[in-house]
Amino acid sequence: MRPARVMYGSHAVAEAVAACRPGVIATYQISPQTHIVERLTYLRASGQLNSEIVRAESEHSAFSVALGASLAGVRAYTASASQGVLLATEVFYTMAGMRLPVVMTITNRTVSTPLSIQPDHQDSMAIRDAGLIQFYVESLEEAYATHIQAFRVAEDPDVLLPAMVCMDGWILTHCYEPIQVPTAEEVDSYLPPFRPVQSLDPDRPLSWGAFVDDDSYMEYRWSVVEAMERAKAKIREVSRDYAARFGRSYGELVEPYCAEDAEIVLVAMGSVAGTMKETVDALIARGRKVGLVRIRCFRPFPWEDIVSSAPRAKVFAVLDRSVSLGGQGQIAADLRGYLHGQKSPAVIGFIGGIGGRDISPKAVEDMVALTERFLDEGKIPPAPVPLGLKTEVSSNG
Amino acid sequence: MRGDIPLAAVDQPGTSRAYHTGAWRLVRPLVQEEKCTGCGLCNLYCPDAAIQVVKSERGSRRVARFNPLYCKGCGICAAECKAGAITMVTEDNAREAAK
Amino acid sequence: MADTKVDPRSRDVRDDEILAPGHRACPGCGTAIAIRTVMRVVGRRVIVVTATGCLETFTSPHGYSAWEVPWVHSLFENAPAVASGVAAALRYLGRTGVPVVAIGGDGSSFDIGFGALSGMLERGDDVLYVCYDNEGYMNTGFQRSGATPYGASTSTTPAAAGSLGKTEHKKDLARLVLDHDIPYVATASIAFPADLMAKVRRALAIKGPRYIQIHCPCCLGWGFDPSETVRIARLGVQCGLVPIWEQERNTPRKSLAVRNPVPVEEYLRAQKRFSHLFDGSEEGRRVIREIQLIANRNLEDMSASLSGAGTSEG
Amino acid sequence: MKEIRIHGRGGQGSVVLAELIAMAAWNQGKFSQAFPYLGGGGERRGAPVQSFARISDKPIRLRCRVQTPDYVIVQDPALVELVDVTRGLKPNGLVLVNGAVVPAKLLNAGFRVYAVPASEMALKETGRGIPNTPMLGAFARVTGELSLDSVLAAVGQKFSGEIRRINEIAVTVGYNSAPGLGREGE
User: Fold this and answer.
1) Closest C-alpha among A353, A355, A365 to residue A286
2) Which residues of B touch C59 (CB under 8 A)?
3) At what angle do helices D14-27 and D148-158 cross, to 10 degrees?
4) Per the count of CB atoms within 10 A, which of A216, A280, C94, D129 is most buried?
């Protein structure tokens, strides 16, 4: 391991990506992702990276470049956020359908309208159904580790799916903090060189992306369903191996925190989990049976790991930083679906941190207090509960 | 490609040959070999690679021969033949002519 | 022909077609002629990227690929970007001698994928881009595109009591491509296969982004008998509405000579999409006159840069 | 844990100032964190920006913005009129404001307030009026949270060549200009 040092979030990601030695990196800038691709182009310009860099004219093209490069047999990487993710939506589906192990960073930012560059998970949630593995990280060190793990999971012949590492924009991308990460040599020993399964090769001239009818489309889709399921074991294994080699662990599919004895179990993902851990400590010190299960991998959805990490849970208090408009928070919806028919634990869906609304320890305490009240009253709200919503929003300033 | 992982609709090369579009045809080209100069224009203009210049069965000249497996009967070859050696006929008429 | 389906591995016919027969193009398809002609020059050592469209659909029903070369289709508007990615991967792998050819129709090239095409050209990526121009969205039933000519009736610019078809002129994409200052730009027609093949050969010998736009009549969309495809294509060139030229960087533009141009009426009259112009109305006559003016301008423009080599006689 | 909030304008180096605080703290064996808040078009030069830093003996897990700072640094005294710079400041909190004098609005507000003519110093020492490194020096001295050595080391890690040299001078001038709080060793 390299000695711990203060690193800048976007540069840490760029260095992690560089350590994975991608053959092609496609770039397009959007806040708060820009510093990642800027750094990668700098690493290339200064001779510290030998990847081919393609500076695309849109995110749709950037992701398409990565798709073409991956199919042509090299490790491919790109990054985006917000509108860029939405613009490239259909490319994610084709990547997943072609089973291309492209790894990408999504620096989570909310989506228009109104236009905002502040963080929430609405962008990556909008493509959760596309067939990509989705990691959400809490810290810079985890972001570094997860990019390396993501390539290994994505490229595993049993998985072969694109993977995105989601990190909260600004909060993590623009953060400086001390982190300890493996050396480039250590990354080499952990992440084997890319062995492409797909290829575009005149000596083996295959046709990719044919059109199919009702006779086989469902089977192809189902193969992705099954690959996603296989990815669960692979993610656990790859995370354990990372911990064993480098002595640093960030959980597997989930990271439980004081969840073993907790009756009220917070469920969340991304950077807010750190604030929640602090709050859980404070509440436990006050004698409350509170814990946290941080979801590290949202797709595939690790419902078994959530449930088994919190055996005494009476209620899962879920915080979604996104909302399916006209429905509920996506994590809450999934968890409710899997727990359907069970009397306990209940699921309460909170929506918070939308458009960058800050989530302080006080907000987390409010969430716990509301949960206790709902439990006491025996009324579990079916609708999402907003956290930190102002009662009035001025229309002009 | 791993056999046990279905990778999105990947195909072996040239497998379309297994689909015989000749069944779409209503009329077919009839080549009058004595008129055919073997210039190959019909082959160049055929959308379906369904007409080739081959050695005549009746002599040593090279003449156009249509491929019944794939010819869709569009008639471009007949329309473009400078020697007027190709006419479009129904299958029945073609059989008649072959006698 | 009792059965249309046999063992996919069987090769009933010995041929060396790169775009294999058995594809599902309509009888008399101009696009199939164009791409078959292009591929016989390109050969087997190539990677082909294709946009969504007629070509992709008729050549790639699953289990029946018409492609003898490595081929990928991803989406409607991203073929140039996918090709850029393929070219970058080949560069990274140090793999030379394998050209990348991207193919899109006019819908993908003129309209939805225009940004991606422009991006690829501007970046200087080593890709030969081939646009098969059948002047509309044929795959979805002949809607108008930026390539649809003035006066044509399409399913989204229908000729009706109050309308004479498309009121906008055809986008001159080849000129726009030329303005990217790339090393090779050419237009071609399926009616002139020798010219088209020579252009593909020249383009293949050049590095960097290259563009060839091929005029491909569509019998179904345009409304003429399938046997007429090549004749219509030839008339398009001979009347001056389809200018055929090529330009290599730093050399004068070369145009196909059109001797004794035919009136546009002859070209228009042969196609159902223009039939409303011949209803005897003054409006119809006016539109035809305007179309003649477009042709005249093209012819003047081309005569200034005659190649002397090819002629409209083919 | 000590929490710091920095108010500045785009172009005044507020994010770099937070970063240098985080690096200096790490240099002297503390855990640290720094991050910006760019709201209201805060990516633009001149627009009000905030950045935050935390210093702690333990790894820092909080990811919320600094709402109840121990220290506030104001890089541009004019911001005092635009922004409630002391919002949430702890009762015994401290404000460090760029300028020759303490703005009237901050007088008698119940906080310790120090004025540091950082822009002036920066202009003199670096030829550019970017106040962040003199403010950093002054912050180290006034609060006693950071040693001059660890701050200079951070400047060395961040910058190189001439930029490093002039910023080392700027930090030192800022440090020496500010009153210490009389802690041991200061």
Assistant:
1) A365
2) 16
3) 120
4) A280
CB contact under 8 Å between C63 and B11, yes or no, is yes
**ipTM at complex level:** 0.94
What residue spans define the domains of chain A? 5-246, 254-393
Q: How far is A39 from chain D (nearest CA, A)?
A: 15
Q: Is C159 helix (H, G, I), strand (E, B) or coil?
A: strand
Residues of A in contact with D67 (CB under 8 A): 358, 360
Residues on chain C touching B47 (C-beta within 8 angstroms) = 25, 27-33, 36, 229
Q: According to the CATH classification, is domain B25-98 in 3.40.50.2300? A: no
**Contact yes or no for C70 and A206 at CB 8 A:** yes
Q: What domains appear along chain C, each with residue ranges and CATH number?
A: 30-311 (3.40.50.970)
Q: Which of C80, C5, C18, C85 is nearest to C45 (CA)?
A: C18
Taking the CB of residue A246, how many other CB atoms lie within 10 A of it?
Answer: 18
Contacts of C269 (CB under 8 A, 6+ apart): C275, C278
Nearest CB to D67 within list A4, A168, A360: A360
Q: What is the pLDDT of residues B26-85, one digit of tens each?
A: 999 999 999 999 999 999 999 999 999 998 888 888 999 999 999 999 999 999 999 999
Model pTM score: 0.94
Angstrom CA distances, A129 to A147, A216, C62, C100, stand at: 21, 19, 24, 32
User: How many Cβ atoms sit within 10 Å of the Cβ of residue B59?
Assistant: 10
Chains within contact range of chain A (3+ C-beta pairs < 8 Å): B, C, D
Question: What is A254-393's CATH topology?
Answer: Rossmann fold (3.40.50)
Q: Do domains A5-246 and A254-393 have the same CATH topology?
A: yes
What pLDDT, in 10s, does the model give residues D103-116? 999 988 889 999 99
User: Which domains does chain D carry?
Assistant: 2-177 (3.40.920.10)
Distance in Å, alpha carbon of D100 to nearest chain A alpha carbon: 31
Say yes or no: domain A5-246 is CATH 3.40.50.970. Answer: yes
CA–CA dist A57, A104 (Å, integer) = 17
Q: Which residue has the tokens 């950037």?
A: A62
